[in-house]
Amino acid sequence: MEILTAEGLSKTYAGSRGLVHALDHVDLDIPKGRLFGFLGRNGAGKTTFIKIASTLLLPTDGTISLFGEDVVRHPNRVRGRIAVVPQEGRPFYHLTPLEHVREYLIVRGASTETATSRAEEMVDAMGLRPYASEPSYRLSGGLQQRTLVAMILATQAEFLFLDEPTIGMDPFARRQVWEVIRQAVRAGSTVLLTTHYLDEAEQLTEELAVVEGGRILYRGTPDALKLRVGREVRLQFEGSVTREELEPFGEVYVDRERITVLTTRDRVPELTQLALGRRSPINVGPVTLEEAFLALVGRSIEEDSPIP
Amino acid sequence: MTYLGQARAALRICYFNGILPLWRQSTLMIAIFLTPVSFVFFLFVIAPRSVFAYGIVGGILFTALFTGNGMLNDCAYYRLERQLQQIFVASPVRSTTFVLGMALSELAFTIPAQALFLTLLWITRPFGWVALAGLLGVILLTWLMATTLGFMISTFYRQLREIWPVGTMVFSTLSVIPPVFYPIAAIPRSWQWAAFFAPSTFASQLAEHTVGLATASPTAAAALGDPTVQLLGLLGATALFGTAAAKLARWRER
Fold it and tell me: pTM for the complete prediction?
């Protein structure tokens, strides 16, 4: 059963170089209980979609419904059932992580007892116990982000919008957060997650959409996206080799200092010989979501969209 | 969420955004005191003693009016810099609840300053419980008017740097130019009516009337000298800014 349905959803802004289509007739539906990923470069339209779906922003055109309710016309009917981790959010200055979670739950209507016990559990689950009584201004950026995510996940809302929830966290903390997100889904929440970390999308999401220029280019599982590339192996060269030399072997992508070629297993010996001959460091591995993204969009996810 | 739940949410926002920070960083209190106390001190040094009480009333109203500036800056900071307004929009908390909670926290910040000014005023010009209730009423109406105005203005901007001068401009204009710190008698009677274009004049005249200080006696629009009209004026301005905030403030982005 679909819990979120968007049809022809568009958002147009007036940019310095004319109209900017942040979202361009996006159709999307997300079933209940799904951990759905939204992948795209900065400025691709992910945050705009999340802002509209979570009642923060009005679309220019199209419809969007959550729990069968029109988000644009009846935002108050859905607001009690959702929670959002905003992109680049920061917690309150003076509150400790424990207070953040407890106070936000109380403000949302939880009893003091429920809020307190859930805050204690969440602080433990997110690895915030050693910092539970430190005011947030004393915490690192990663810990502040964890605090914000803890506040939102503790709501146990039916639909959770997580806009780059693990940004600025160390790999260990990211894994802790992933586990709490998985628990939320097991407990019945539906999650829409945007991320820049392709390993996060690969590890966490059951299904994803790739967004570019305000449009959805792909929707499916991460594995199916990798299969679309049609190649099995990725070789990354760090300079010394030109695009022209690699093109006969498969698809070639140039990303800053690195040149990546996606190819088949039987071509690997020739390419390693080439790298050895040029004394070029080489990195060989199976095709990852990063290459799949690169192949689909034609650019790295790290590369920002042009400024409108 | 029920109305009771919304009221509880507003009080809770006041608790964690106003009372806790004040408790943990008491220097915030000094920041609130500093400007009005400087004005009052200045008046104490240079002006005749008869004007000092007006200066203290001015300090009370300046502090109440500047809750609007605090509201403007805090709401803008939370929305633009910390993205915290988003987590309240996407929640059962209504915009009025958030605004009330934020406004109450601004009020909490000013309680120590107001207690100081009220004590000073009582020492300078002793007043009874009824006058105290009247003064508190004026403070609350002024606070309500200023904070709704502050919130509304905060929602119009997309850059924090654009907002900083706006608040100082608006709230200084409301509290320094009109007869808030000085007696309205300093303005010729034939021009006193013009001072009532600033809603803060209604508040200052009411407060001064409450403690028995000489108030406006304009030759034109003489009704403006009547405390009932002044109360209606203050209520009207508060209702006007409240309605404007409800209609124009952007809780949801466009």
Answer: 0.86
Contact residues of A toward B, CB < 8 A: 51, 54-58, 75-76, 79-80, 82-95, 99, 103-104, 106-109, 135, 148, 151-152, 155, 161
Alpha carbon distance A220, A207 (integer Å): 5
Query: Which pLDDT score, from 0 to 100, does residue B191 have?
Result: 86
Spatial separation of the C-alpha atoms in residues B90 and A36, rounded to whole Å: 19
Q: How many other C-beta atoms can be found within 10 angstroms of the C-beta atom of residue A270?
A: 11
- Nearest Cα to B208, choosing from B189, B195, B227? B227
For chain A, what are the domain ranges? 2-221, 230-286
Q: What are phi and psi of B105, to 5 degrees?
A: -70, -35
Question: Rounded distance, CA A26 to CA A12, Å?
Answer: 12
3-state helix, strand, coil in chain B (%, to 5): 80, 0, 20
DSSP A53-95: HTTSB--SEEEEEETTEETTT-HHHHHTTEEEE-TT----SS-
Contact check, Cβ <8 Å, A82/B90: yes
CATH number of A2-221: 3.40.50.300
* Cβ–Cβ under 8 Å, residues A177 and A60: no
Strands A233-238 vs A282-286: parallel, antiparallel or unpaired: antiparallel
* Span B205-220, pLDDT tens digits: 999 999 888 777 777 7
Weakest mean pLDDT among A17-26, A133-142, A173-182: A17-26
Which stretches of A203-291 are assigned E, i.e. beta strand? 207-212, 215-220, 233-238, 251-255, 258-263, 282-286
- Find the helix packing angle between B199-210 and B49-76, rounded to 10°: 140
ipTM over 0.90: no
Chain A residues within 8 A of B92 when measuring between CB atoms: 79-80, 108-109
